[in-house]
Design brief:
Helix 2 crosses helix 3. A hairpin with a 5-residue loop joins strand 1 and strand 2. Strands 1-2 form a two-stranded antiparallel sheet. The protein is built from four helices and two strands; from the N terminus they run αββααα. Helix content is 57%, strand content 3%.
Length: 131
């Protein structure tokens, strides 16, 4: 299931997964029930459910609770996709503008200007006001 020993020990430490038995050489052995539970844990982690909340999910969530969790996760994924699409469009726009500026042989430079001082208008004060 592509899970490291470190992850398995962490889940055991947090009380959400235990081996079905431990051999004399301290190898932990997992049966089908534990593998099924591990698959639930991995799904919940992919949905960004905190490890501290996973025990509650495994022991007391109803089918409706899981459905609500999945619906909420789906909404978050859709929002993230929309944000990424906006970012993609912005990057394309910047790339096109950059490409056009190169083709037009216009120089595009960023210059560092010295400090600028503002003065309130209508005052006869000889000293500028700094903002």
């Amino acid at each position: 299931m592509n899970v490291s020993v470190h992850q398995l020990r962490y889940f055991e430490e947090k009380g959400i997964l235990y081996p079905s038995y431990t051999e004399k050489n301290q190898y932990r052995m997992y049966g089908l029930d534990e593998i099924y539970q591990l698959s639930h844990i991995l799904l919940l982690r992919k949905l960004n459910v905190p490890v501290a909340q996973i025990e509650e999910c495994l022991t007391s969530y109803t089918a409706d609770d899981y459905n609500q969790l999945l619906e909420s996760s789906l909404e978050k994924v859709r929002d993230e996709i929309a944000n990424l699409k906006q970012l993609e469009q912005f990057i394309h726009k910047v790339l096109n503008e950059h490409h056009n500026s190169i083709q037009q042989d216009n120089e595009y430079r960023i210059r560092l200007l010295g400090p600028r001082y503002l003065k309130l208008s209508g005052t006869n004060c000889p000293h500028p006001h700094f903002y």
